[in-house]
Amino acid sequence: MLKYSLRRILGMIPMLFLISVVVFFLALAMPGDSLTGEIDPNNTDPEYIEQMREKLGYNDPIYVQYGRWISNFAQGDFGTSTKYKIPVADLIAQRLPNTLFLGVTSLIITYIFAFVMGMYAGRKPYTKLDNFIGGFNYLMLAIPIYIAGVFAIYFFSFHLGWFPFSGSVDIATNEGTLDWWLSRIYHVILPALVLGAMGTAAYTQFLRNDIIDNSQKDYVRTARAKGTPESRIYNHHILRNSVIPLITFLGFDIVTLVNGALITETIFTYPGLGQLFLSSMTTNDYPTLMTLALMFSFLVLIGNLIADLLYGVVDPRIRLD
């Protein structure tokens, strides 16, 4: 497994290089440049604008600009945000805890509901409750997340007043206190429920279908013939094999932990990396945009590697050499 991991990590280097080239040229193809996010071209002397572009190196050949950017990036210098006027690394460090908190909370909700509903639907298929669970899941798969988010805000925030509709914490609380943590939990519940419900549908159906499929395998029939208790058959034999397909989603889960679902954070005005990514596109904050795009791509590769490694942990029959 160690050799396999090293090969995969080394294989990421050319992949990351290609991704960095794509990210750089896509940013280059967008209207304006980083300077556009700092000044108002309509109220600024054109001569001053050209002087600043020359000073910042925007008139250099493309390959020189790319080399300078990727060299600084490799050294941990991600540039300065043109919107917030602080280093991009500090800006990401400020938003990252919120995104991680939202992602972890939504994943906990996803797995709890998916395992409960998936195991019941798999053990008792084609019953009324199984049909209800299936209908609910297909409804969640059909509804766009922005529609679910707007509906949740209207119903649970405006109509019932149960949860706040924006922000990540009450500004009146002192950081680190119990009230501050309770406020953070209170603010994250609604966006996490929306984000978790969207993921629950796919997880539940995969788990249900795989449990039904595995319950008809020969090793299950053999276990029943030996008199093995039904609970042990489902929990020890069937469930362990049925969990394997869910591992394939882990790569996407890692990304969810970091970007916090772009649309969800934007709808709920939740200050995380997802909202920062979208706002950097609309404000021409290219240093932040390029850094986040490359970081998200790197995390996708890491997530896929972790998913492959966990295959061997969950299923001993799988060996990675």
Automatic annotation (TrEMBL):
Transmembrane segments: 100-122, 143-165, 185-207, 243-268, 288-314
Chief location bin: membrane
Location in or out of the cell: Cell membrane
Alphabetic keyword roster: Cell membrane, Membrane, Transmembrane, Transmembrane helix, Transport
BP terms from Gene Ontology: transmembrane transport
Pfam families, sorted: BPD_transp_1 (PF00528), BPD_transp_1_N (PF19300)
InterPro entries tied to this protein: BPD_transp_1_N, MetI-like, MetI-like_sf
Record domain ABC transmembrane type-1: where: 96-307
Membrane topology note: Multi-pass membrane protein
Entry protein name: Peptide ABC transporter permease
Organism listed in the record: Pontibacillus yanchengensis Y32
